Amino acid sequence: MTDRTGQCLCGAVSFKAVDMSDTFSACYCDSCQRWAGGPYMGASVKTENLEVDGSENIGIIKTTSFAERAFCKKCGSGIWWRLTFGQYVGSTSIPIGLLDDRSGLTLSDEMYSDYKDHTNERPENVGQMTSTEAEAVVATFTEGEPE
């Protein structure tokens, strides 16, 4: 268990997760893939150990009879998936992409693995760009843009 911090894309919502799990799960169900734009990968923390700043910027939607999803009302980042019914109430899953530091996290299990398809595989010889190379490409998006 590790204390971790994180925030949404715009920084309007930030958090500290005390004693967060050092493992994360991937979920391939239709609901998670539509919400996350691909497999949802989240690490759990006891809800009582989640300290949130910017809660006025959080929107919550009940997406099933047993769970809710939270998002930043300013930038749209998914903030959490939380059970609202059943034996595991009291735990919150935070998307690992929001974490400031993901070191030490390991994948523990995959949910709805039968929903995985070819888009979830990484074939050999896939092109890769470093951050420097990608930033050079991104810089071309705004060349000649009026100020």
* Major sheet summary line: 7 strands, mixed
Beta-strand percentage range: 35-45%
- Based on the structure given, which CATH architecture is correct? Beta Complex
Spatial strand arrangement across the major sheet? 6-7-8-9-4-3-10
Low-pLDDT residue spans? none
What is the 3D form? globular
Radius of gyration, whole Å: 17 Å
How would you summarize what this structure contains?
This protein is mainly beta and 147 residues long. Helices cover 12% and strands 39% of the residues.
Describe the structure.
The protein has 147 residues and is mostly beta strands. The protein has a single domain (2-119), classed as Metal Binding Protein, Guanine Nucleotide Exchange Factor, Chain A. Helices cover 12% and strands 39% of the residues. The chain is built from two helices and ten strands. It has helices spanning 30-36, 131-140, and strands at residues 2-7, 14-20, 23-27, 40-46, 50-53, 58-62, 67-72, 78-83, 91-95, 106-111. A seven-stranded mixed sheet has the order 6-7-8-9-4-3-10. A three-stranded antiparallel sheet has the order 1-2-5, with no helix packed on it. The protein is globular, with a radius of gyration of 17 Å.
Write a concise keyword list for the protein shown above.
147 residues, mainly beta, Metal Binding Protein, Guanine Nucleotide Exchange Factor, Chain A, 7-stranded mixed β-sheet, 3-stranded antiparallel β-sheet, 2 helices
